[in-house]
Every structure is written in structure tokens, then in C-alpha cells.
Amino acid sequence: MIYARKDILGIEELTKEEIEHILDLASSLKEINERSIKKVPTLRGKTVIHLFYEPSTRTKMSFDIAAKRLSADTYSISVSTSSVVKGETFLDTVKNLEAMKPDIFVIRHSVSGVPHRIARYTKASVINAGDGSHEHPTQALLDMLTIREHKGTFDGLHVLIVGDILHSRVARSNIWGLSKLGAHVTLCGPPTLVPKELESIANVKVLYNLMEILPDADVLMVLRLQRERQKQSFLPSLREYSVLYGITNEKLKKAKPDLLIMHPGPINRGIELAPDVADGPRSVILEQVTNGVAVRMAVLYVLAQRNLP
Ligand code: CP
User: Which positions bind carbamoyl phosphate (predicted)?
Assistant: First the structure.
């Protein structure tokens, strides 16, 4: 067994082999999503609870679809429909749900570290579906699967991540994963949003001038400005940000013809990404979403198989 952990909390703690094992498994499970009957009995009798205390379209839906395609029973709680609105703490909510004997919790929370705290408490497996600005491991796994499908290898590949790195759990998980797999990662954006200290990670470089580095990139990962996490003003104006760091077809004239354009979603169209780039021929944004289901099937599978008969 290559993945023997109880939980999936972050890419930082995973080995290269564990990451590759999940990507290989996701590749082999993808075919189920193309069948006319998209269901296999692998996780029959397993119970998955989604606890999303922050909004989500892609992650929540694809975890739910993934679990159902593996025949698990799924249940969902969001903050507005739980007893949290009556004053119950998150830990008390989890203790009560734990008493109903679930197998897996999928947790998204605005506070970094909440899934880790719950994982220490519960016997069930915990999957981090995004915690504050810390990590979003399954997003990075689906990004890495998409890159691997297009580029074949990570060795020497140049991945440029542009935008609000400071607040981005997607960036953090991708930085850990891509650097472990052998890619060179450059982080670019305004100095207020791109911490220079991240250069202490192997294979990671920080630059502030987009046009200096764009021509060298094989993959361009564009991030959303996380204004909901910005407690102070990090930018003189959105217009200035867009002029300097927004990705347009004009700027892409200097890029490699086979540059892959990615975005985890949701997109602020016209701010970090021009609509004709988001919908253009080099964009793989919807392929990322498709791969999200297979990656989440793989993650649910490796955790559930720990106690399959
Ligand atoms: N990429 C991502 O996490 O999207 P959602 O917030 O819609 O889940």
C-alpha cells in the first residue's frame, strides 16, 4: 500500500511517490466518468460527510459526484443549515457527527488548520477541501494531473504562478507539489502579495515583472485576487493590477505557442484573466474541473481502502 495515512491534509507532508500514486490512480479512474452508467460499487456502505463552512461550487460538487460514483453515501452540511447558527462550536458539531459513525469528513473552513485539528480528534479520515490561506491539496492534485496529461513530465518544466500568492491556498499546495515533482516554479505578482521568503523552497523563484518571465513559461497558473481574505489594501487599484498582471492576448504574444493556461476558479473575468484568454484555445480551465472528479475519486478511494474488507 503506497498511501497509508488516515487523512489528506496538505501536499507539504506528502512524498513524491504518494503524489504520483494518487495521480496514477486518478488517471485510471477517469474512464468511469465517460461511461453511460457512471457508477462502481467500490465504496458501497461507506459514509462521506461534506462540511463546507465557506462557499464552493467546484470542490463541493466534485467531491459529492466523486463519492456517489464510487457508491458511497454522502451527506452535506453548510454553516447556514447547521446548529452553528444557534451557537454550537465547530468541534461540537463534528463530535455529534462522529457519533453517527461516518468514514470520511471533507472539510472546508476559512480558518487555517481547522481540518488538522478535527483530524486529531476523529477516527474518521479527514480531507482538507481548503483551509484559509494554508492548503487546498485536491486542487493541486487536479492541477498536477492536468499538467501531466499535457506536458508528459514535470522534469525541468517551468510553471509560472501569477497573482495573489500571499492569500492563496491553491498556490501553496501547488508550490509544494510541483517542486517535489521536479518542476521549476516562478511566483509573480505585486510585492505586497508575493512573499520573497517562498524562495526558501527548492525550485521556487520570486519575480515581480511579469513580462520578464512570461516568455520562458510552459504553464501559466493564474490566481484570483482573494479580496475576502485581504484585511488591508494590498493594491493601489484593481485597474493597475490588471494592467501589470492581468493576462491578455496582447501579453501572450510574447509567450510560447504551447503555453498551458490554468485557473483554479472562480475567475474574476477582466481582472486577472481576459475573457477571450479564459475561453481561448490554450486554456485548460474546464479540463481542470473534469480532472477534479477523478482526483477526488482517487483520494476517497485511497482513504477508504484502509478499512475495506
Ligand atoms: N477551485 C475551487 O476551490 O473552487 P470552489 O471554491 O468553487 O470550490
Answer: 58-59, 108, 136, 139, 265-266
* Residue 58 in marked binding region: yes
Shortest-distance atom of ligand 1 to CA 108: 8
Measured by CA distance, the residue closest to atom 4 of ligand 1 is 58
The pLDDT tens digits of the residues spanning 239-297 come to 889 999 999 999 999 999 999 999 999 999 999 999 999 999 999 999 999 999 999 99
Q: Which domain holds residue 95?
A: 16-135+292-304
Q: Do 157 and 296 belong to one domain?
A: no
User: What does the alpha-carbon distance between residue 138 and residue 16 come to, in Å, rounded to a whole number?
Assistant: 15
Residues 112-144: tens digit of each pLDDT: 999 999 999 999 999 999 999 999 999 999 999
Q: Is 113 in the pocket of ligand 1 (CB under 6 A)?
A: no
Q: What angle do CA 126, 148, 254 make, to 5 degrees?
A: 120
**Is 57's C-beta closer than 6 angstroms to any atom of ligand 1?**
yes
- Entry pTM: 0.95
